[in-house]
Structures are given as structure tokens and as C-alpha cells.
Amino acid sequence: MFSITGRGNSGYNNSGNYNSGRGNSGDDNSGHCNSGNHNSGNYNSGHYNSGYRNSNYYNSGDNNSGHYNSGHCNSGNFNSGYGNNTDRSAGLFNTEEGTVRCFNRDSGKKWHEIDHPDMRGFKLCEWISASLMTEDEKKRHPDFETTGGYLREYTYKQAWANFWAETSEENRKKFLNLPNFDADTFRAITGIDVTKN
């Protein structure tokens, strides 16, 4: 006999709400045996994890006690490697935060020592309401009448062109002031030629 004690559960033995997995005591989990919330992995006691056995938040790797790790077995934060007890390491078994490589060379600076540009306006896709759709877009997406619009997708370099045109001059200068800035490398990645207005 299945036990569903929370609301909106499609799994079983859940005491939380809106779980599709089983054995969850948190809410909105699609994995199993989570005590946190919004996990798609299993055995997480933190929140928003897609990996397994994480005790903190926003990990896509496994067995992390830190936050925002895509690697495994990290006790620090923002690591993509494994076995790290520091922050922002892409390597293995490090206890000290390293300096950041910028434009293919070491910057000599740690992450927090750099004046980072604001990337929040960078979009690879965005919702376009029906009133802003072109006639061609309406023909290619006839279901817009039902959905009220459609999701417009951009290539990586199109997204960069849109972002660069829309961001502030102050923010553009932050890119140009990054350590080791190299216009050719920036153009190869983004498609943007900063030598031209």
C-alpha cells in the first residue's frame, strides 16, 4: 500500500508536496529520498540539486557539501573538478583557490579580485509575445494564437550581438578592462569586433 501524505504527489512515501519521486520529505522533487526541495537527483538534503547525495544547494555533480558545484565530492563552492576543499577550482584535490585564466593566460588575480561585467542580459532564447512577432514568425509558429507567443532562439553569436548592443557603455568597458583582454580572442568567441564602433 502506497503512502502519500503530502499534496500533489505522483510518487509514494512522500511527506512533502508535489513530488514525483518517492521517499521525499521536501517539496517539488522528481528524484527519490530527498529532504530538500526542488531536486531532480536522489538522496539530497539540500535544494535545487540535479546530482546525487548533495548536502547543499544548486549542485549538478554528486556528493558535494558546498554550493554550485558541477563536479563531485567538493566541500567548497563553484567547483567543476572533484575533491576540492576550496572555491572555484576546475582541478582536483585543491585546498587553495587559484588565480583565474583570462584570454588564454593566467591573470595573477583571484575571482573576487576582478571587476566582472554583468552578464544577466545575455539570452540564447526569449519569450516573444504575439503582438511583437513578425508575420514570418507567425507563419512558422501557428500555435502562437494558443500560447500567446513563442520562444525565439538565437545562435551563440547572435545572442552576443544582441547583448552587446543592449548593455550599457559602462558594462562594455568592464569587458575591455578584463585582465589580458585580447580583441582577436574576444572576436573569435563572441563575433564582436571591439576595434569597430
Describe the protein.
The structure is a single chain. With 197 residues, the chain is of the alpha+beta class. The protein has a domain at 125-190. The protein contains five helices and four strands; from the N terminus they run E-E-E-H-H-E-H-H-H. The chain has helices spanning 135-140, 144-147, 156-166, 169-176, 183-190, and strands at residues 101-102, 105-106, 125-129, 149-153. A two-stranded antiparallel ribbon has the order 1-2. A two-stranded antiparallel ribbon has the order 3-4. The chain starts with 100 loop residues before the first strand and ends in a 7-residue tail after the last helix. The model has no long low-confidence stretch (mean pLDDT 82).
**Helix vs. strand class:** alpha+beta
Question: Can you write the helix and strand succession as a string?
Answer: EEEHHEHHH
Number of helices: 5
Helix content: 10-25%
* Radius of gyration, CA atoms, in whole angstroms: 22 Å
**Number of extended strands:** 4
Strands of the biggest beta sheet: in what spatial order?
1-2
Main beta sheet: strand number and arrangement? 2 strands, antiparallel
Q: Pick out the low-confidence regions.
A: none
Per DSSP, what share of the residues sits in E-state strands of 2 or more residues?
5-15%
Gross geometry: flat
| Termini gap | 69 Å
How much is the average pLDDT?
82
